[in-house]
Amino acid sequence: MPVADGVATYAEEDSPFNKIAGLGFGRAPDAATLGDIEDVFAERGAPVRAEVANLADPAVGALLTDRGYRLASFENVLGLDLTGGCERVVASGIEVRVCREDEFDAWLEAVVDGFAHPDAQGVPPHEEFPREVLANAERDFAAAGVVHYVALCDGDVAGGGSLRIADGIAQLTGAATAPAYRRRGIQTALLSARLADAAAASCDIAVVTTQPGSKSQQNVQRRGFHLLYTRAVLVKDARVLGTTARPDVPSASRLARAVREETPDEVRVVEYKSSREKLRPLFELAEDSPGQLASYIEDGRVLVAVQGTDVLGHLQLVGTDQPGEFEIKNMAVREDRQRTGVGRCLVQYAMDLAADASARRLLVATAAVDTGNLRFYQRQGFRLRTVERDAFTPRTGYPPGLLIDGIELRDRVWLDLPLAAPAPGSPTRLPSET
Q: For 344-371, how does the pLDDT look when each residue is reduced to its tens digit (9 = 90+)?
């Protein structure tokens, strides 16, 4: 999507292409256009990453910060005049050439390994990308005209980089060296080979982006690059971390588009999309059986309570085998944030989400000896339903001798809550839908 002489792009979950690029070289973006872009990212559960050149009108930064963007990092863009040509540097035992198609996997392995072990010099990178996402991005780069270069050290793939030429500008990207081959001149050879090819293709200038003060910046400056500008990277957290609908849970399309209400301490409830392994410590607060947890951790949907980017608690909502019935399968709040209203917010959102899907009943189960949980759920309107005897035993995957307040953990209490349609103005609904 075009925005103020720049462009907003989204490729896939966690992609480095998910960003607003080119802000600051033209007019300031208008709020309506930014709102449309933010809505598109919110529908995908993704944060908005905006790159703003330090040459920009200060109004650009003011607009973004007023809309909730926060400064995440800086990047330096450097340039080199190529009109005088560039000499290719040859190092003993090192060969740099265009990567063949059958070498791409080895090239990718070396580059990803290099990215995964960045040099400690300078400002550390603020992002990490899954290997499969990086692979997709590099394949997309190739489709866009990027040429991959492989560096061989004594015949072994030691690193790689990329070159894209457009309108007389040579863009150098994706250069990395596997840790085992560093300090042998790999980056110098990769740099000189790409510059020589760019000069031979009649490019006027080469550009490269580096982390401030990094070894990469040092390498290109030694080659004659000069700082053109610094860009600030500002990020607006995802309004909702949505997920593709599953058949056993209610649709969250409205949640993904809705503007969230906030509690007085700015705690927001959003839907979680990333790997649930990252939430395992929270899941384990509410589940003592590793086997039981493994059997259901990927089920249903997960809501998280967040403050900024800090996750305070979670709630897992799953369907049951009864139509119109959903269960709070696992819920926990970080110990340092318990008794602050976080759990109440999570349960309320779960109630609204289930009711919005015309569910008639919400279930939850807890240990009979956990009087704190029993009081909590009854305060939310749940009532006692049944007692399941001997639910927490070695036979069901729980270690023997578990105690809560000195009482052995054995029986499970089920509670339920009849659901009505969400009240008008509920945060799960858009104003246009009420």
A: 999 999 998 888 877 889 999 999 888 8
Distance CA 429, CA 124 (A): 41
Query: Rounded to an integer, what distance in angstroms lies between the CA atom of residue 349 and that of residue 317?
Result: 10
38 close to 31: Cβ distance less than 8 angstroms: no
**For residue 131, what are its two tokens?**
């290997």
Alpha-carbon span 148 to 164, nearest angstrom:
9
Q: Spell out the alpha helix ranges (H) of 278-360.
A: 280-286, 290-296, 342-356
Number of neighbouring beta carbons within 10 Å of residue 431:
9
CA dihedral 302, 43, 421, 367 (to 10 degrees): 0
The helix (H) or strand (E) run that includes residue 68 is none
d(CA 238, CA 267): 14
Q: Is the pTM of this model over 0.70?
A: no
CA 26 to chain centre: 29
Is residue 30 helix, strand or coil? coil
